[in-house]
Fold these 2 entries.
Entry 1:
Amino acid sequence: MPSKNMLPKGQRRRTVKHEYRATRGVEEPTPLPIPVLEIDFDDDAEDHIHTFTAAPEAAGLRLDQYLAQAIPDISRARVQLLIEHGQVRVAGSPAKPKQKLHGGEQIEIEGTPHPPPLHAFPEDIPLEILHEDKHLAIINKPAGMMVHAGSGATDDSRNHGTLVNALLYHFNKLSGIGGDLRPGIVHRLDKQTSGIILVAKDDSTHRKLGDMFAQRHVEKTYIALVHGHIAKDNTTINLPIGRDLVRRNRMTTRRSADSEGVRTAVSHVKVLERLTTPYGPFTLVEVRIETGRTHQIRVHLQSLGHPVVGDTLYGAPHVIGREGNTLSLDRNFLHAARLAFTHPQSQKSMQIEAPLAPELKSFLAVISASSNTD
């Protein structure tokens, strides 16, 4: 069978060298960025209809691809769910999953995307419990463990091995305020961040803890190792944080403070030690955060030009060190080390500390062994 790439019959002796030469070394034009739509999906507004016009830059894109790029807070899987449920119309007609856009079409989205219900289930996973009473528990979470499955997950590997799965196995009762997917979860840590996380066993404790976090009555202190030497011994970073509209898995401090979805964020950075090592300069810091925004410490330290070691998402090098003298760390060097608060039921002052994870201790020992400290 002739190749689909062959010239039509009768033209197969025609040379295409001149066409090749004309395009050799010419890069394909970079597609124009898709303008962002500031749409807030409110779970309570089931009958609300969002209406907008597809941007000219949408020409040639699939509908689901365009919407996933234009609406930063919704994944392509959730977009496809909306389309499958008949909640998206293009030019007044129900949208098709593989529909291509020309640009300029009127698009309507009705309601919010609802994945099939997902229930967390218990799994026998070891937990390091730092404190437990009848109202709450405090856990030292290892790096690599997600706190809970994502809302778009199904009953597969993404709903296994989470902190919630382990909590359901170890404790008879957890607060139900977080729903079936997040029982007991009052706050979160990134997957690759280790350390202290607070869990509520009953709804009353959960509500009171939630208010304490919102009113900044919980003191959260982290230990981080960053690349380079931070100049000042004490620095306060007061930069609002919002989603990066180009790389949607990142957050950024570079959006306007009055943009939708951008929230205030305050971090206090204290230098513990500056190290000059054969693997490069590093600074060990203690970070106390007033707010709890997504990726806050990682983004704020990057804004200083000092990314967290191992945090390649925010600019840390994949290879730590120089040629012939390198190290590796398959996680972020970020650890929730201390939590101080007043127990919401007993009113006792609580201060809980979690030692550095073994892999962080080992890494620090290696670079410290041959370092000059300041």
Entry 2:
Amino acid sequence: MSETMLELEGVKKGYNRGKPSEVLVLRGATLSVAKGEVVALVAPSGAGKSTLLHIAGLLDVPDAGTVRLGGRAMGGLSDRARTEARREEVGFIYQFHHLLPEFTALENVMIPQLANGAPRAKAEARARELLEKVGVGARAGHRPAALSGGEQQRVAFCRALANAPKLLLADEPTGNLDPATSDQVFGVLMELVRATGLSALIATHNLELAARMDRIVRLSAGAVS
């Protein structure tokens, strides 16, 4: 059996805890992603997929349950240790690219590497390599406003992979693109993931895209099936 990269066990999360307005979003969610496996997370709007991804990526803390990355339990870590684990282990992609508008495509991909202590020359070489792989190498010197939606999202993919994470978490990564561009850009993402042997949990409402992944899990009523 393959080793597990991500494990969520009995994860619960609510908001406005202890108040009459309390909302339980996750009610004991359990799932696992093996090393090198690409899993589609399918859920209706408002079901809590973003909350689940934030907990999996150490951006949020569950009220109960266990989160493990590479077999290591993440509960009880200090804020600093959680930040370090997230920076070293996890890459994030969102529906909207969130690129920094004042920086070029190349600089956007360099920034997370520089923040992680990489020498500038190494960060630039890595950024150029990734941008070439996704077909936007010639656009490296352009700022986001000068790029198409598909190009912006490709740059966002590169930024997420810049620090060579072991786990990729994506929240509707092509949801802001038209169908033709979405299909093309998703193909680029899958090529990147397969080439690097990443584990990935990708939330999408597009069942055609979900079918191209290794496995589909569904989030409903706060639980995963």
